Amino acid sequence: MSESKGLFGGGMTIPALPVRWLYRLASTHAFSERGLYLNMGYWEGARTIDEACEAMVELVGRTAGITSADTVVDVGFGFAEQDIFWTQRFAPRRIIGINITPEQVRVARERVRKLGLEDRIDLREGSATATGLPDACCDVVTALECAFHFDTREDFFAEAARLLRPGGRLVLADSIPTGPDLDPWQHPLQALMGGLARAALAVPQANAYPRAVYAVKLAAAGFESVQVDSIREQVFPGWHRALAQDHEMRRRLGPVGWALGRIPEAGYAPFDYVLAVGRKPGTEAVK
Description:
The protein is built from ten helices and nine strands. The chain is of the alpha/beta class and 287 residues long. The chain has a single domain, classed as Vaccinia Virus protein VP39 (Rossmann fold), CATH 3.40.50. Helix 3 links the parallel strand 3 and strand 4. The longest helix is centred in the first third of the chain and has 16 residues. The N terminus is likely disordered.
């Protein structure tokens, strides 16, 4: 089980909700009306949650440079909505999805089967940090709004580096803190709330670091041409506005939507949202 450790100088630990339980509780509730998207959306030019969710998936696919020659490993694929989109939009040779939640894998496989895409999208139950896939098996690794769950994100970076061929690309859309943890002795309430938020969202304490540290950890895992760019202004304001104005969206999310809709916009201030990219050194072989 992941834990948020040392919240008060090591004197208090808050056990994090296991990520399997979190998504079992969420069931098949999705943010979007069309499809089963589970991202907060990229809102630059988007007017609805459906448009924003699709724009986020498009952004990750374009940033990864997915082509028809590529094999993609998508870790934390949710209900495979992004894999279906990328297959139809970029036509990669193959997508292998890894997801730790059995219910999501089952639903996603059925959706892929109904679309006749089983030969293009291979969905598996497994861990982000120990996928069981062979070395140098893919050209792109993606993780869309899920790497904050991985225990730990650094272990996932190492696994991604192992899976990628020389010249391969890692692309993540990820939520992180805007800065280091607050001193719990000077800001006890804020520190407590941060620990509770991490626990509720199944975020290990080891994953709580800002952009500069994120880039250092990617480089330490062996990636070059590392970029960790904040896109929070294209994510959080639109997401917050949608929760406030889209009654159907809140209804789809049930009690979770009710709770999220009561978070003030200032409640997002401690959080950043990044698009992170790294390239495995070497020259990619002609496929």
